Amino acid sequence: MLGHPGETAMLIIRLLCVVIFASLTIYTAPVLMAEPNLFPAFFGAVSGGGWQGQFNLDFMFMLTLSGLYIGWRHRGSPAGLALAVVAFLGGAMFLSVYLFVQSFRCEGDVRKLLVG
Fold this sequence. Notes:
Elements: H1 5-34, H2 39-48, H3 50-73, H4 78-105, H5 110-115
Helix pairs in contact: 1-4, 2-3, 3-4
């Protein structure tokens, strides 16, 4: 049995990261093989309007916030800025791996994981 609520939360975060990474990897592999350049479809939908464009724009802003968070968490260091770019381009696939690794570096402390 887990000792305290923080341990349970960390276990849930780690499991969620594994599920997100596995799901996205399984889904992305065939999509990438069929259509290796996502930018025309992505920005085409944004410029075309409609709900797909709105979703893509919203998603791009979430990626921006993810990148800013990673850069801030690493105090703007060169490695942190590089990770911020990877977070923006890699989305949840990158962030799930990043948080999974950081969860062990933070020794299971959820506050350290989220705040740095």
